[in-house]
């Protein structure tokens, strides 16, 4: 009985930054959930081979990322880009102490994951210790994304959460369209609060609030957070995360605002990858590089080596033949190129002609 209670508490406890982060930093730790391999790649027009996804996860791990959403077990008819997640989680490098959540929409997705976990050779670091489930703050978006109403999705997710908990998996929840819905317009923050509460009550250790279309700004995000955590609400900011798409360039500002409201976990996407297949026009998540740069020198520490993560952003953008959507990533790309040219100049004895001949 006590063991069961302890297990339940553990499932409710969110994974922290790795211990080494606390040991070396006096600053307050901010958790970054890297969603590029899932939220980012799911929206690319091309279906990316699992090998590239594996390399992306591995490069992020090498760059010091601690939590990486590795993919999703959704219907491949709905989101073909996420086919191959089984291959990804089997072959990616998995480090003890790091976390690789995967998104599941229903019991079928969870069963696929549980089968994989059951087949995993003993003694290996588990493919994952966490699933993410998702619903929305409007029926219109929920139907477009998962073919059911909010109420139906909460019923579906209650069963998923119960089964995941029984199997020892932690569950993280998402609420989409917390500011505006592409189908039904302005969203009532009271609904965001109620859906968040329902996800927490069913057993999610944390709920990520998604500005799916990226129209939020510090005022609207602040008002939404005031309703979700203020007044008579018993929701603590410590169980919330911000998931802000950067369509209007407000992602970093919205994170800074959310820090003022007490949130300490944010989702971001290397190279600003992504968007949402059911939210036409929405661009990717706020870029991880931009978030790390914004927090530099502040009282907050976020894990990850900015220079290395920026290189990952440049690499994956090239793989996808797309423009790097991170402003910081692009600036660092330009700096690396300048440094390369300078090095070449030094090596060639400073001859301007030899350098310009090569450019
Ligand atoms: C939920 C469903 C499945 C309902 O879709 P449905 O069509 O109502 O499902 P169904 O139960 O009738 O099944 C239809 C077919 O899909 C199969 N199927 C059913 N489930 C699965 C599964 N898990 N894995 C693999 N296959 C599955 C099922 O077996 C069947 O196959 P068939 O008999 O036709 O051959 C579908 O709507 C779906 O997969 N939706 C996912 C959409 C999605 O991935 N959206 C993006 C993620 S959410 C997001 O990005 C927002 C977020 C989280 O980032 C936050 C934010 O920014 O807002």
TrEMBL record:
NCBIfam families: PRK05692.1 (NF004283)
PROSITE patterns reported for this sequence: PYR_CT
Region (Disordered): 326-359
Keyword rRNA processing annotated: no
Organism: Dichomitus squalens
Protein name per UniProt: hydroxymethylglutaryl-CoA lyase
Entries under SUPFAM superfamilies matching the protein: Aldolase
Class of this enzyme: lyase
Positions with biased composition (Basic and acidic residues): 330-350
């Amino acid at each position: 009985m006590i063991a069961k209670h302890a297990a339940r508490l553990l499932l409710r406890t969110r994974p922290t930054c790795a211990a080494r982060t606390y040991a070396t930093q006096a600053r307050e730790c901010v958790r970054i959930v890297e969603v590029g391999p899932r939220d980012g790649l799911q929206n690319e027009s091309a279906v990316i081979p699992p090998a590239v996804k594996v390399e992306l996860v591995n490069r992020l791990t090498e760059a010091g990322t601690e939590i990486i959403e590795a993919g999703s077990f959704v219907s491949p008819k709905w989101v073909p880009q996420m086919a191959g997640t089984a291959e990804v989680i089997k072959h990616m490098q998995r480090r003890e102490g790091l976390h690789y959540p995967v998104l599941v929409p229903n019991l079928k997705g969870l069963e696929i994951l549980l089968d994989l976990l059951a087949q995993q050779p003993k003694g290996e670091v588990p493919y994952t210790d966490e699933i993410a489930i998702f619903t929305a703050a409007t029926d219109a978006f929920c139907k477009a994304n998962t073919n059911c109403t909010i109420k139906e999705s909460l019923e579906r997710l209650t069963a998923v959460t119960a089964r995941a908990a029984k199997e020892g998996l932690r569950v993280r929840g998402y609420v989409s369209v917390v500011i505006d819905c592409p189908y039904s317009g302005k969203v009532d923050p009271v609904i965001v609060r109620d859906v968040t509460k329902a996800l927490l009550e069913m057993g999610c250790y944390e709920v990520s609030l998604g500005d799916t279309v990226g129209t939020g700004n510090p005022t609207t995000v602040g008002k939404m957070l005031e309703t979700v955590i203020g007044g008579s609400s018993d929701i603590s900011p410590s169980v919330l995360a911000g998931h802000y798409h950067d369509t209007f360039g407000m992602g970093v500002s919205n994170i800074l605002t959310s820090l003022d409201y007490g949130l300490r976990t944010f989702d971001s996407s290397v190279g600003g990858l992504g968007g949402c297949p059911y939210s036409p026009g929405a661009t990717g998540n706020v870029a991880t590089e931009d978030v790390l740069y914004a927090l530099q020198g502040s009282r907050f520490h976020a894990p990850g080596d900015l220079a290395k993560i920026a290189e990952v952003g440049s690499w994956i953008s090239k793989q996808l033949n797309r423009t790097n959507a991170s402003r910081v990533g692009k600036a660092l790309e330009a700096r690396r190129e300048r440094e390369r040219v300078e090095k070449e100049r030094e090596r060639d004895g400073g001859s301007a002609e030899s350098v310009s001949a090569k450019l």
